[in-house]
Amino acid sequence: MNKNKKKYVIAASAFVICFLLFILAVRVQRMYAANVTNEQSTSQKKQSNTTKSEAKKSIDVKNEKENKKEDKKAEDSSTKAAAAKNKESSNTQTSTTANISGASSSSESNTQANSEVKPSAAENIKVKPSDPDEQYSFQFIDTVNGNNVFLKKNVDNMEGDTVGYITEKLLDEAKISFKATGSASTIYFAAINGLEEKKAGKLSGWCYYVRKKGENEFEKPNVGSGQWIYHKGDIIVWKYLADGIHDGYSDDWMK
């Protein structure tokens, strides 16, 4: 009897122990599952945050690129508008002030523009035997102080360059001082060899005249010196005049 009782006690103890182990195993499994779930949730949350961050970064980069494009478009529009304005200003300056290689003031521009409305027969200047030496293609004359010819040069090797560019080069080579504004096609000579515009009168200044190869008359171009192309055989005469607008347009133009 005692032996059977011991067996029952041992069996009951074993059952209780197994039951406790089972409950413990269940709890451990639940704890493990909870930890795994938390880790997965944390991982998913991190991944989600990373994805959101990357998406936001991508959107920010896209917005920045779009803003740059818009800024560039605005800048290009502004640049084009400024260029158009400068071109319009340059065209206005050239057309209204070509008789003195460009404009120096708005009042003179208006006077000069009005002075260009003359009969076509007066646009050319006849050449006399006493006119510029044909051996020199570029000549500089001070008509205010005794028709002083202070520079004569032959530049037939510079065909295709503009009168303005050649004039700068000749004056530099001869070490003759000059003042010029603008550059290239808009260059304007305000003073040469100490002879400045407006110093010999309100309308005084420098004008250039051209006698094309094969022709016998000088003409006063209606464009600035930076736009007139020199060709071999042409004769260019720069003149300092007391009145660069009403300069005569007659046979005595050298006086």
UniProtKB/TrEMBL annotation:
Comp. bias intervals (Polar residues): 37-52
Biased composition (Low complexity): 79-115
Name assigned to this protein: DUF4430 domain-containing protein
Highest rank taxon of the organism: Bacteria
Residue ranges with Basic and acidic residues bias: 53-78
Region (Disordered): 37-132
